[in-house]
Amino acid sequence: MSLDPELLRALPKVCLHDHLDGGLRPTTIVEIAGEIGHELPATDPDALRTWFVDSCNSGSLVDYLVTFDQTIAVMQRAQDLRRVAREFVEDLAADGVIYGEARWAPEQHTRAGLTVAQAVEAVRDGLAEGMSAAAERGHEIVVRQLVTAMRHVPEPTTEIAELAVRYRNDSVAGFDIAGAEKGFPPERFLASFQLLRQASAFYTIHAGEADDLRSIWGAVCLCDANRIGHGVAIADDVTVADDGHEVVGDFAAYVRDQQIALEMCPSSNVQTAAVPSLAEHPIARLDALGFRVTVNSDNQLMSGTNLSRELGLVAEQFDLGVEDCRRFAVNAAKSAFAPWDLKRRLVERITSF
């Protein structure tokens, strides 16, 4: 079913899995790069946009991640982090998003002398500016940040988890680990997750995108994740019996029965070969089986997308309607790392549309 793009844009939406350094405007990259003397693969904004999307259609998560060298390079000064965060919120608002979580890795933004704390505060200020600008245009939106640790560092520390706790009441919604997944299991950061649990703080874990079911099992059963980033490989624990009905394995059933949200990102999952094609994505199958599926944009620049477009692609591919898109939005609202009263208001805005 093809849904009206304007209807999807107007639908109140919640985006849980969206990388700040994957959502820059090409014009912003060009302008900042010119100021700091950073060489880009293209200096025309349209050509640069095309370069990002083409480069990310590699079929490899590792190759996909290389493109972030260009965006991270222009996010080293406090004023640049503020600008990127402000524009990120404005772009979400223009797409009809009412709540978002912007994830990024502070440790990658200290080359120009910022501390990780100063970087977090710069993003905090930019998010606030973006929310204020959106409110002036009549759109109420809340966007908070998820601070991310890079999972492939030689020796994991608890520094970023401690940062998440320190700023938990100052724009930070929670914690994440991201980066190369295969060969770097989530339990390497077990000390961080234990620290967060002891502080009653939220966290999500990238798992089941570039590695198999074992990665998700580690994130859930060893690290006790509140949500799973991507989680595509959970479908490997769902089989088809001889009589044609689907059998949900014990682990997948646990994820479903606990309603652990799956932060699925259709376009990027195809780009990184997490799935061979959109038609083979398990999102609709898992949704029909009762998993708490959410739809997300992941990296708006790299995938040339936004949340409305992702919902439209899923709806068209799997013959879904606006009620299905509304259910995905409600799932995301219920799974947000946000206070209960805010989540209740989000659900009310979505269901009353």
Automatic annotation (TrEMBL):
Broad enzyme group: hydrolase
EC annotation from Swiss-Prot or TrEMBL: 3.5.4.4
Domain (Adenosine deaminase) ranges: 12-351
Cofactor: Zn(2+)
InterPro entries on file: A_deaminase_dom (IPR001365), Ado/ade_deaminase (IPR006330), Metal_Hydrolase (IPR032466)
Keyword flag Zinc: yes
Keywords: Hydrolase, Metal-binding, Zinc
Family to which this protein belongs: Belongs to the metallo-dependent hydrolases superfamily. Adenosine and AMP deaminases family.
The protein, known as: adenosine deaminase
Species for this entry: Microlunatus ginsengisoli
